[in-house]
Protein backbone atom coordinates (compact mmCIF):
# COMPACT_ATOMS: atom_id res chain seq x y z
CA UNK A 1 0.00 0.00 0.00
CA UNK A 2 0.94 3.65 -0.25
CA UNK A 3 3.24 5.04 2.39
CA UNK A 4 3.52 8.54 3.77
CA UNK A 5 3.99 11.06 0.99
CA UNK A 6 5.28 14.62 1.20
CA UNK A 7 5.40 17.48 -1.23
CA UNK A 8 7.31 19.20 -2.56
CA UNK A 9 10.43 17.05 -2.32
CA UNK A 10 12.60 20.15 -2.60
CA UNK A 11 11.80 23.79 -2.00
CA UNK A 12 14.10 26.77 -2.47
CA UNK A 13 12.78 30.06 -1.20
CA UNK A 14 14.04 33.55 -0.52
CA UNK A 15 14.46 34.79 3.02
CA UNK A 16 11.29 36.43 4.23
CA UNK A 17 8.90 34.42 2.05
CA UNK A 18 6.25 32.05 3.41
CA UNK A 19 6.30 28.34 2.55
CA UNK A 20 3.83 25.50 2.88
CA UNK A 21 4.86 21.87 3.17
CA UNK A 22 2.35 19.08 2.70
CA UNK A 23 2.07 15.62 4.24
CA UNK A 24 -0.29 12.81 3.22
CA UNK A 25 -0.27 10.16 5.96
CA UNK A 26 -1.03 6.49 5.49
CA UNK A 27 -4.77 5.98 5.18
CA UNK A 28 -6.33 5.12 8.53
CA UNK A 29 -3.44 6.41 10.63
CA UNK A 30 -4.79 8.66 13.35
CA UNK A 31 -1.49 10.06 14.63
CA UNK A 32 0.65 12.44 12.59
CA UNK A 33 4.01 13.96 13.51
CA UNK A 34 6.25 16.63 12.00
CA UNK A 35 10.01 16.61 12.56
CA UNK A 36 12.91 18.75 11.38
CA UNK A 37 16.33 17.37 10.50
CA UNK A 38 19.09 19.92 10.25
CA UNK A 39 22.45 19.03 8.70
CA UNK A 40 24.41 16.81 11.09
CA UNK A 41 21.69 16.95 13.73
CA UNK A 42 19.18 14.44 15.02
CA UNK A 43 15.53 14.74 14.18
CA UNK A 44 13.79 17.44 16.17
CA UNK A 45 10.13 17.02 17.11
CA UNK A 46 7.91 19.89 15.95
CA UNK A 47 4.23 19.06 16.34
CA UNK A 48 1.89 16.11 16.87
CA UNK A 49 -1.75 15.57 15.81
CA UNK A 50 -4.06 12.85 17.13
CA UNK A 51 -7.59 12.61 15.79
CA UNK A 52 -9.65 15.63 16.76
CA UNK A 53 -7.64 16.38 19.88
CA UNK A 54 -5.75 19.65 20.27
CA UNK A 55 -2.28 19.23 18.74
CA UNK A 56 0.88 19.17 20.80
CA UNK A 57 2.77 22.20 19.51
CA UNK A 58 5.50 22.10 22.12
CA UNK A 59 8.27 21.50 19.57
CA UNK A 60 7.56 24.44 17.27
CA UNK A 61 10.65 26.68 17.41
CA UNK A 62 8.86 30.00 16.97
CA UNK A 63 5.48 31.56 16.21
CA UNK A 64 6.49 31.70 12.55
CA UNK A 65 5.76 27.96 12.44
CA UNK A 66 2.23 26.60 12.34
CA UNK A 67 0.53 23.43 11.17
CA UNK A 68 -2.94 22.23 10.35
CA UNK A 69 -4.47 18.84 9.81
CA UNK A 70 -7.68 18.96 7.83
CA UNK A 71 -10.29 16.21 8.13
CA UNK A 72 -7.95 14.11 10.22
CA UNK A 73 -5.83 13.30 7.17
CA UNK A 74 -3.64 15.69 5.18
CA UNK A 75 -1.42 18.07 7.12
CA UNK A 76 0.24 21.32 6.10
CA UNK A 77 3.24 22.85 7.87
CA UNK A 78 3.54 26.58 7.25
CA UNK A 79 6.65 28.65 7.88
CA UNK A 80 6.14 32.39 7.67
CA UNK A 81 8.87 34.92 6.97
CA UNK A 82 11.44 32.19 6.44
CA UNK A 83 14.95 32.60 7.81
CA UNK A 84 18.17 30.92 6.70
CA UNK A 85 18.24 28.86 9.89
CA UNK A 86 14.95 27.28 8.77
CA UNK A 87 16.88 25.41 6.07
CA UNK A 88 16.51 21.71 6.86
CA UNK A 89 14.73 18.54 5.85
CA UNK A 90 11.19 18.45 7.19
CA UNK A 91 9.92 14.93 7.82
CA UNK A 92 6.38 13.81 8.44
CA UNK A 93 5.43 10.51 10.07
CA UNK A 94 2.16 8.77 10.83
CA UNK A 95 1.16 5.89 13.04
CA UNK A 96 -1.95 3.80 13.46
CA UNK A 97 -2.28 4.95 17.05
CA UNK A 98 -0.24 7.06 19.46
CA UNK A 99 0.36 4.04 21.68
CA UNK A 100 4.00 3.22 22.45
CA UNK A 101 3.97 -0.04 20.53
CA UNK A 102 2.83 1.50 17.28
CA UNK A 103 5.40 2.11 14.59
CA UNK A 104 5.84 5.57 13.10
CA UNK A 105 6.21 5.47 9.34
CA UNK A 106 8.18 8.30 7.80
CA UNK A 107 7.74 10.12 4.54
CA UNK A 108 10.71 10.98 2.30
CA UNK A 109 10.87 14.54 3.59
CA UNK A 110 10.91 18.00 2.06
CA UNK A 111 14.30 19.64 1.75
CA UNK A 112 13.87 23.36 2.38
CA UNK A 113 16.61 25.77 1.40
CA UNK A 114 16.26 29.42 2.36
CA UNK A 115 18.56 31.71 0.40
CA UNK B 1 17.49 16.28 30.03
CA UNK B 2 16.28 13.55 27.68
CA UNK B 3 19.13 12.82 25.27
CA UNK B 4 20.37 10.13 22.92
CA UNK B 5 24.03 10.06 21.98
CA UNK B 6 25.52 7.93 19.25
CA UNK B 7 29.05 6.96 18.34
CA UNK B 8 30.94 7.01 16.15
CA UNK B 9 29.66 9.97 14.17
CA UNK B 10 30.83 8.30 10.97
CA UNK B 11 32.41 5.02 9.99
CA UNK B 12 34.00 3.56 6.87
CA UNK B 13 34.34 -0.20 6.48
CA UNK B 14 35.11 -2.62 3.68
CA UNK B 15 32.42 -4.78 2.18
CA UNK B 16 32.07 -8.06 4.02
CA UNK B 17 33.38 -6.74 7.33
CA UNK B 18 31.38 -6.44 10.55
CA UNK B 19 30.81 -3.28 12.55
CA UNK B 20 29.14 -2.14 15.77
CA UNK B 21 27.41 1.17 16.38
CA UNK B 22 26.82 2.53 19.88
CA UNK B 23 23.97 4.40 21.51
CA UNK B 24 23.76 5.85 25.04
CA UNK B 25 20.61 7.47 26.33
CA UNK B 26 19.29 9.42 29.28
CA UNK B 27 15.57 9.24 28.50
CA UNK B 28 12.98 8.71 31.20
CA UNK B 29 10.44 7.25 31.38
CA UNK B 30 11.68 4.68 28.88
CA UNK B 31 9.21 2.81 26.66
CA UNK B 32 11.30 1.24 23.94
CA UNK B 33 14.38 1.71 21.79
CA UNK B 34 14.48 1.54 18.02
CA UNK B 35 17.22 1.52 15.46
CA UNK B 36 16.36 3.15 12.15
CA UNK B 37 18.18 3.08 8.82
CA UNK B 38 17.99 6.23 6.75
CA UNK B 39 19.16 6.14 3.17
CA UNK B 40 20.19 9.45 1.62
CA UNK B 41 17.14 11.43 0.60
CA UNK B 42 14.71 9.02 2.23
CA UNK B 43 12.81 8.90 5.49
CA UNK B 44 14.01 6.63 8.33
CA UNK B 45 12.93 2.99 8.23
CA UNK B 46 12.72 0.90 11.39
CA UNK B 47 15.17 -2.02 11.75
CA UNK B 48 14.53 -3.24 15.30
CA UNK B 49 12.50 -2.34 18.34
CA UNK B 50 13.26 -3.45 21.89
CA UNK B 51 11.35 -2.98 25.11
CA UNK B 52 12.81 -2.74 28.60
CA UNK B 53 12.85 -6.50 29.11
CA UNK B 54 14.55 -7.43 25.84
CA UNK B 55 18.33 -7.77 25.65
CA UNK B 56 18.78 -8.59 22.00
CA UNK B 57 16.81 -8.49 18.77
CA UNK B 58 17.88 -9.58 15.31
CA UNK B 59 16.68 -8.60 11.84
CA UNK B 60 18.68 -10.47 9.24
CA UNK B 61 22.26 -9.24 9.39
CA UNK B 62 21.36 -6.59 11.97
CA UNK B 63 21.50 -7.44 15.68
CA UNK B 64 20.61 -4.90 18.33
CA UNK B 65 21.39 -5.22 22.03
CA UNK B 66 19.99 -3.30 24.97
CA UNK B 67 21.30 -2.90 28.50
CA UNK B 68 18.56 -1.02 30.33
CA UNK B 69 20.65 -0.82 33.51
CA UNK B 70 23.50 1.09 31.88
CA UNK B 71 21.17 2.70 29.30
CA UNK B 72 23.25 1.53 26.39
CA UNK B 73 22.39 -0.09 23.09
CA UNK B 74 24.41 -1.32 20.17
CA UNK B 75 23.67 -2.26 16.58
CA UNK B 76 25.90 -4.94 15.07
CA UNK B 77 26.00 -5.36 11.31
CA UNK B 78 27.37 -8.65 10.05
CA UNK B 79 28.97 -9.26 6.65
CA UNK B 80 28.32 -5.71 5.47
CA UNK B 81 27.06 -4.98 1.99
CA UNK B 82 27.34 -1.87 -0.15
CA UNK B 83 23.62 -1.29 0.38
CA UNK B 84 24.25 -0.93 4.11
CA UNK B 85 25.72 2.52 3.41
CA UNK B 86 23.31 4.85 5.22
CA UNK B 87 22.77 6.72 8.44
CA UNK B 88 21.76 4.59 11.42
CA UNK B 89 19.67 6.39 13.99
CA UNK B 90 19.03 5.31 17.55
CA UNK B 91 15.63 6.42 18.81
CA UNK B 92 14.33 6.12 22.36
CA UNK B 93 10.61 6.33 22.97
CA UNK B 94 8.98 7.82 26.00
CA UNK B 95 5.23 7.52 26.40
CA UNK B 96 4.42 10.94 27.71
CA UNK B 97 1.38 13.17 27.59
CA UNK B 98 -0.73 10.40 26.11
CA UNK B 99 1.39 9.71 23.09
CA UNK B 100 4.55 8.16 21.77
CA UNK B 101 7.31 10.80 21.93
CA UNK B 102 10.51 9.91 20.10
CA UNK B 103 13.94 11.20 21.11
CA UNK B 104 16.40 10.87 18.24
CA UNK B 105 20.15 10.48 18.21
CA UNK B 106 22.16 12.37 15.61
CA UNK B 107 22.95 9.13 13.82
CA UNK B 108 26.05 7.29 12.65
CA UNK B 109 26.86 7.68 8.99
CA UNK B 110 28.16 4.34 7.67
CA UNK B 111 29.97 4.00 4.36
CA UNK B 112 30.68 0.52 3.03
CA UNK B 113 33.40 0.46 0.39
CA UNK B 114 34.10 -2.34 -2.08
Topology:
The complex is a heterodimer of chains A (115) and B (114).
Chain A: E1 5-7, E2 10-13, E3 19-24, E4 31-37, E5 43-50, E6 65-69, E7 75-79, E8 88-95, E9 105-106, E10 110-114
Parallel strand pairs in A: 2-10
Antiparallel strand pairs in A: 1-3, 3-7, 4-5, 4-8, 6-7, 8-9, 8-10
Chain B: E1 4-7, E2 10-14, E3 19-25, E4 32-38, E5 45-51, E6 56-59, E7 62-67, E8 72-77, E9 86-96, E10 99-104, E11 108-113
Parallel strand pairs in B: 2-11
Antiparallel strand pairs in B: 1-3, 3-8, 4-5, 4-9, 6-7, 7-8, 9-10, 9-11
* Radius of gyration of chain A (Å): 13 Å
Per DSSP, what share of the residues of chain B sits in E-state strands of 2 or more residues?
Answer: over 45%
Helix content of chain B: under 10%
Main sheet properties of chain A? 6 strands, mixed
Globular, elongated, flat, extended or rod-shaped: what is the shape of chain B? globular
| Strand proportion of chain A | over 45%
Rg of chain B, Å, rounded: 14 Å
Mean pLDDT of chain B: 92
Oligomer: heterodimer
Distance between the termini of chain B: 41 Å
* Count of DSSP strands of chain B: 11
Biggest beta sheet attributes of chain B: 6 strands, mixed
Low-confidence stretches of chain B: none
User: Which chains share the greatest interface?
Assistant: A-B, 28 and 23 residues
Concise description?
The complex is a heterodimer of chains A (about 120) and B (about 110). In chain A, strands 2, 4, 5, 8, 9 and 10 form a 6-stranded mixed sheet that branches. In chain A, strands 1-3-7-6 form a 4-stranded antiparallel sheet, with no helix packed on it. By secondary structure, chain A is mostly beta strands.
